[in-house]
């Protein structure tokens, strides 16, 4: 083997080693990226679940607001009930006379 061939062979060996190192680095980076993607997918699923919970809670709150008796409505109902009780008491008093 000539000196020139030996130099070419060493360059080739060096480049092969560099390629192997690059391959290992890329492989490690690829593994990290896959782990990151998996983590982001888990976070996305968790966010979807939270969103669904919030939507359900909002729908329940909307329904509760629709059937909620307001303070004014409650006062009116108490006033009407008190008036009805007084009227019944008057009627009973008239019947006892």
Compose a concise summary of this entry.
With 97 residues, this protein is mainly α.
Tell me how many strands there are: 0
Average per-residue pLDDT, rounded, comes to: 90
Beta-strand share of residues = under 5%
Structural class: mainly alpha
> What gross morphology would you assign?
rod-shaped
Work out the radius of gyration.
41 Å
Q: How can the largest sheet be summarized? A: none
Helix content: over 70%
- What is the count of helical runs? 2
- Order of H and E elements: HH
Distance between the termini: 139 Å
Oligomerization state: single chain
Which spans of ≥5 residues are poorly predicted at pLDDT below 50? none
Can you characterise this structure?
- The longest helix has 65 residues, at 3-67.
- This protein is 94% helix and 0% strand.
- The N and C termini lie far apart (139 Å).
- The chain is rod-shaped.
- It is an all-alpha fold and 97 residues long.
- It has a domain at 3-68.
- The model has no long low-confidence stretch (mean pLDDT 90).
Task: Provide the descriptors you would attach to this structure in a database record.
about 100 residues, mainly alpha, 2 helices
């Amino acid at each position: 083997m000539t000196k020139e061939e030996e130099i070419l062979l060493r360059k080739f060996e060096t480049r092969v080693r560099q390629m192997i190192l690059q391959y290992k680095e890329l492989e490690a980076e690829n593994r990290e990226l896959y782990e990151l993607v998996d983590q982001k997918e888990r976070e996305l699923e968790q966010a979807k679940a939270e969103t669904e919970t919030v939507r359900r809670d909002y729908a329940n709150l909307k329904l509760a607001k629709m059937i909620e008796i307001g303070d004014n409505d409650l006062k009116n109902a108490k006033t009407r009930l008190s008036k009805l009780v007084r009227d019944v008491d008057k009627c009973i008093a008239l019947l006892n006379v």
